Amino acid sequence: MKNFSKITLSVLIAASASLASCSNDDDKPVEKATIYERLGGSAMVSDPDNSGQMIEKGRLSFRKVVNSTIGLIVADIQSNASGNLQAHFAPLLAETGNTQATNIAKLSDNLTDFFSFNTGGTNAVNTYSGLNMVAAHDPAKNPRMGTKASSADYTKFEGYVGAAANKNGVASNTELYTDIVAVLESLRTPIVQK
């Protein structure tokens, strides 16, 4: 009978420890999906820009926002409005012929890599190997950067990213939009150098 009591006691202790650990798991906050996952993650979809090829949906979402942002910046520069971002992108836009389109495509790909990698994209295609943010935005270290950015310049850039996100289905009043803005704000200090 003593063996039965020891066994019963052991089972009760093990069961209570198991229940206690389950209740501790319930107290933990549910981990939020990464921005990349919320933009579609690693689910493969047809690439609308490359017939017959597949692309991760999260990467495609970022590429659409990046390309829309680049389009807004180019339109801003072409408008000759005061306070436009012409000075920052002048070296890139001064490149002529086929190289300009190629280099803008490289910029798009590099930015897509950067955002995909830094928001949860784990596939090797999302590896960012470009310059760090300080060097990338310093004309002395990156000849494709025309001038250093001021806080106002960066705020304008953030506005273009926000407008591009809206254009591509990310509404301003969502948690996803707020999280994207938080990522951009985390980059303000190394990018703003003026």
From TrEMBL:
Keywords: Signal. One of its GO terms (molecular function) is oxygen binding. It comes from the Bacteria. InterPro entries: Globin/Proto. Residues 1-20 form the signal peptide. The keyword Disulfide bond does not apply. This is Group 1 truncated hemoglobin. The lineage of its organism: Bacteria, Pseudomonadati, Bacteroidota, Flavobacteriia, Flavobacteriales.
